[in-house]
């Protein structure tokens, strides 16, 4: 029991340290996917250590190369929960659907990012450095020290205990969900939440409008908004999705975006 407890503590520290490095390989295509894979890699290596499981290990590595973007401090919770789900899948490969793992990850990205960014970036950092700057202007050495301490302590607590809670919660409740036949419902709800997150990202992060109008009454953008708000961002996203489904090279897709955007902007069609 003591050995198992020590082993789990080592897992918690892995979630802690590796979640802090989750943005080191940030990219525009899939954001923090490589950082998340770095965080979950020790778990995958431990689970699939038998050479006969190499195919499953490669599948797991590919599974975690999909898009991921979340506040680093709250990512430890996702790492812990995902590690627990990976262990559950290895123990019950016939009854556990591995697609559930990415569905849960996607559904958690939005809520945890909203909470994490608002708390750490919008509240803790502002308070910490506001107080620190005020003391520093008075010539006190406590200014920068206090700013770093106030910033670090909440991050440390949320990161460490988030990873611990996520891992233990997964071990405790996933088995009950499967035994009760509730996992399909959970996956269904997670897929809906994931689609809601993607829809919100499209509406908030893709800013495309058209200035086209005829006379003083007909404004094309108003017409499009009356049919469906954010229709142009949605249409562009669906076009990019169609290109991906057709296996169009990523470089060509980026070239289409850049050149097409410049031409349409120069013609006054999009702004």
UniProtKB/TrEMBL annotation:
The keyword DNA damage appears for this protein: no
Transmembrane segments: 141-162, 186-207, 251-270
Keyword Transmembrane annotated: yes
Pfam families named among the record's database cross-references: EIID-AGA (PF03613)
Entry keywords, A to Z: Membrane, Transmembrane, Transmembrane helix
InterPro entries in the record: GatZ_KbaZ_carbometab, PTS_IID_man
Highest taxon above the source species: Bacteria
Protein name: PTS system mannose/fructose/sorbose family transporter subunit IID
Organism: Enterococcus avium
Biological classification of the source: Bacteria, Bacillati, Bacillota, Bacilli, Lactobacillales
